[in-house]
Amino acid sequence: MTAQVLGLYGIGVLLAAMMLLKMPPGYAMGIIGFGGLAAHLSWVAGLPAGAATHSATTLVVTDLWGSFSNYGLTVIPMFILMGELIFYGGYSDTLYRAAYRWFGHYRGGLAMTSILACAGFSAICGSNTATAATMGAVAIPSMRKYKYHPTLMTGAVATGSTLGVMIPPSIVLVVYALYQSQSVAKLFIGVLIPGLLLTGLLAATVGLICLRHPEWGPPGERSTWAQRLASLLPVADVLVLFVAVMAAMFSGLVTATEAAAVGCFLALVICLVRRKLTMTALAQALHHTLRITCMVFMIVAGAVIFGRFMAITGLPQAAAGWIGSLDVPGWVVILMMLAIYAIGGCLMDALAFLLISLPIFFPLVEQLGYDPVWFGVLLCLVTTLGAITPPVGICCFVVAGMNKDIPMERVFQGTLYYLPAFLLTVLILMLWPQAVSVLAGLVR
Length: 444
Fold this sequence. Notes:
By secondary structure, this protein is an all-alpha fold. It is about 75% helix and about 0% strand. The chain has 23 helices and no strands. The protein has helices at about 5-20, 25-40, 55-70, 75-90, 90-105, 110-120, 130-145, 150-160, 165, 170-180, 185-190, 190-210, 225-250, 255-275, 280-315, 315-325, 330-345, 350-370, 370-385, 395-400, 410-415, 420-430, 435-440. Helix 7 (about 130-145) packs antiparallel against helix 8. The chain is globular, with a radius of gyration of 22 Å. The model is unreliable at about 45-55 (pLDDT under 50).
């Protein structure tokens, strides 16, 4: 059996293990990657004196040490902790009330409010599932009160929660940056315009839905200008926190890790000064931060092992060479990749699929001369679709799980209305890559 055929078998077994056996992505990638290395090289159970330099165990230990001794990885728990502190500080309710004061009186205004509140919460959270759970608990009861249609209200919350990947700090972008040796700051700044564009298109989609089905989103109460302006004061803390973190990275005065540490400190100070954080809430924030960080790190560890297996087989280079030999323009190749990512994101965890496939596709992207920052933003946009499309659709599962009276099919149906907004954003980024580079290029 040739090395490349072994690599194809490894990919097949990996997909079967995750989709059929429901094995966690990190464990599946680690076990199958190590097994493939052992089959292709030698299998050494430990590290005795004089062990083979190119044994499976030696390669795995060396790669894991090289990856996890990277100081930059501390940015992940820091940004997660910042989001958890704000979450347990109760700012999700504050953001929703502020957005409602400004947009709740429009037809479908509560659904628009939910999407805008998701965007605001994403700016200090960075997690799809956390945003879905938080906004599901805050927004859906309010929309029920005004008799919103289940399709509209669940679709808005589930789709809005995907903004956690497209608005910094995004954990997926952090992992992409560290995995491909890219600048976290450039990715965070570069994703701002696409993230705001997608937010606007999702909110506009609610308006279009209510034009066709006006009974789905009855208008709420109109707030006075005094109430609207007063609602901005409590959310000023979140705005200050977001601007401080982004400005610190944009200026180049601090690294992304240092900016994350500053963000954690400011989030803690804000919550303590506002008396929004109890000792119990702080303990819960630390506990959830540890759990989420361990999950992300396990996926990264598995991806490192499986990526080494792919590199040893030579499959990525062969695939890049074959695609590069096709007599088609570069943008056609990019579209082919995006189609694969869209399908892969529907079938398995988006972050896991991203890390599995990057060793195959990233060399080709560099060979074609495309900007890695632009490509990373584009990948995050496409793969996040998996969070609202079957069979994985984790955000839909979270929203449906919190509303037992609404069938899962109804939630997925609601998210389908928003797919054109994602596709239009992809098209704009393909035609106008400067939407990413115009700000990313200013980072020092």
